[in-house]
Amino acid sequence: MPKSAFRSASAVYPIMTSIKVPPLGESIVEATISRWLKNEGDPVAPGDTLVELETDKITVEVPSVTGGVLKKRFAKEGDVVKLDQLLAEVDEKADGAKEQSARPTAAKTAPVAASPASATSSPAARPTAAKESPRASPAATRFAAESGADLSKVEGTGRGGVVSKADVVEQGTSRDPTVAVGAPSVKVERPPAPPTFVADQGQRETREKMTTRRKRIAEHLLESQHATAHLTTFNEIDMSVVETLRGRIKERIEKEHGVRLSFMPFFVKAACAALKQFPTVNAQIDGDSIVYKHYVNMGIAVASDAGLVVPNIKDADRKGMLEVAREIVDVAKRARDGKLTMDDLSGGTFTITNGGVFGSLISTPIINYPQVAILGLHKIQERPMVVGGNIEIRPMMYVALSYDHRIIDGQQAVLFLVRVKELMEDPALMVVD
After folding, report:
1. Residue 53, in any domain of the structure
2. How many domains does the chain divide into?
3. Catalytic residue from among 315, 343, 409, 426
4. What's the burial of 221, exposed, middle or buried (CB within 10 Å: 0-12/13-18/19+)?
């Protein structure tokens, strides 16, 4: 066969690039395909998100590492895929990719030449519009549709310039002068209500498959209940001193530091001080050993659209209150924007959860296993209290400490919670400590 024939064959022979399930994080070996963003035959550019994977902790967007045409998808939405499993193949040499890059130019130079019929029937018309629109993640697209934001005016910070939900939120915040600097803090204190399902008329039941994240949350909670000797102790805190202090300085803090000061940083610092005094509450069981942690990675439970997540603030015991406040706002915002990393979600030593933002008066939180304790905060409610022999109306909060009775004795748990109460009722003690 002549050499020219070999050259001709190699010129048209496809060059396939395999797209596989990427590393998902420590101890995570599978994920669920939540959404395909590209169909077979669609042109793709380097950095375009092909598919969105949902794990028990985070949502992972899988981009194309090369340009070309998506030739084949090897799994469908809802499928559970394993680490390094083949997801799709991209043909780098497909003619469709070349035609897509050429046709928009032709359409722009001679728009009059195309008749209405050809514009409707031509397969190049639809991809042209798609190419001109910015590449955006599904979360960004949904948020833009709900908020009325123009994606074409948002600069993407994701891989390959992909627009994320956080980019849309930040663009709207910088454009709208009515949004306060501390707006993300408002979200921390008043998270959105979970979505409600509207049944079709006459429909009595709706069946929906559990997401991977919901299944893992359920498994994790059951593991915590089965693997620990679960017990809860309660107390109540007079919040009047902290309320007065916060009311006096919050405007100045927000103006000078750009941070809206909530009650959570006070509880974080109080808990860190109490953990220093009662190190068993910050420990962990490893086989027949107790591992004492000489640092506090403080987990903060955050309600997101995809479910409850617990990012943690690293070395919270070594940080000042303003730094803690700023990081709480940051991790809560990233949790709701789906931009948490595995580092944010791993390594926690103690957790605080605040059911009071939803109106909960009292509850028994479940330990975030393998941690051994969790502090539950609740709604601040004015109640009549006896103070110095007189009845006074005070802003009171019930607090709960759930703990693993295998290594934390009841005395230690009660004294830990009493110490948190003392520090919150007299915040000056935190400065002295």
Report:
1. yes
2. 3
3. 409
4. middle
Q: In terms of domains, do 38 and 157 share one?
A: no
Q: Which of 62, 78, 93 is the last residue of a domain?
A: 93
Q: Which domain holds residue 49?
A: 3-93
Residue 117 pLDDT more than 50? Answer: no
Is residue 91 a contact partner of residue 15, using CB atoms and an 8 Å limit?
Answer: yes
- State if pTM tops 0.70: no
99-110 exposure pattern, b = at least 16 Cβ within 10 A, e = fewer:
ebeebbeebeee
Q: Annotated catalytic residue: which of 84, 95, 343, 405?
A: 405
Beta strands in 64-167 (DSSP E): 68-73, 80-82, 86-91
Residues sharing a CB contact under 8 Å with residue 172, sequence separation 6 or more, in sequence order: 147, 149, 179
Active site residue 409: yes
- For residue 112, is it within any domain? no
Q: In DSSP terms, which residues pair with 49 in a beta bridge?
A: 63
Q: How far is CA 371 from the centre of its chain?
A: 20
Task: Residue 29: name the closest of 62, 1, 53, 65 by CA.
Answer: 53
State the residue for tokens 């107390």: 235
pLDDT tens for each residue of 349-402: 999 999 999 999 999 999 999 999 999 999 999 999 999 999 999 999 999 999
| Annotation says 150 is catalytic | no
Q: What residues pair up with 313 in beta bridges, in sequence order?
A: 298
pLDDT in tens, 14-59: 688 899 998 876 667 888 888 899 999 999 998 888 998 887 767 7
Q: Which helix (H) or strand (E) holds 66?
A: none
Domain annotation covers residue 115:
no
